[in-house]
Amino acid sequence: MLISQSNFSKMILIFSIQYDWSTSCIIHWLNSWGLKVIRINGDDNVYKFDSLTDKGIFFKNTLSGEVVNLKEAKACWWRRTGIKHHHLAQPSMQRKLEIDDLDLTSFISGGETDFLKRESKALIEYIVQDIYETCPRNLGKPVFDLNRLIVLDMAKKIGLKIPEYEILNSGKDLFERKDSFGKAVTKAIANGIAADVKGSRFYSYTELLEEEFYIKNKNYQFFPSLVTKLVEKKLEIRSFYIDGIFYSMAIFSQSNEKTSIDFRKYSNNRLVPYQLPKDIELKIHSLFLQLDLNSGSIDLIVDSRGEYIFLEINPVGQFSMTSEPCNYNLEKIVANYLANGINSN
Amino acid sequence: MELTQIDISEERLDGLPLFFRKIHYNTLADINEEYKLIRYNHSLQSNQMSYSYAKREISKTIDYSQFYGRPDDKAND
Question: Among A9, A112, A131, B45, which one has the highest count of C-beta atoms within 10 angstroms of its own C-beta?
Answer without folding.
Answer: B45
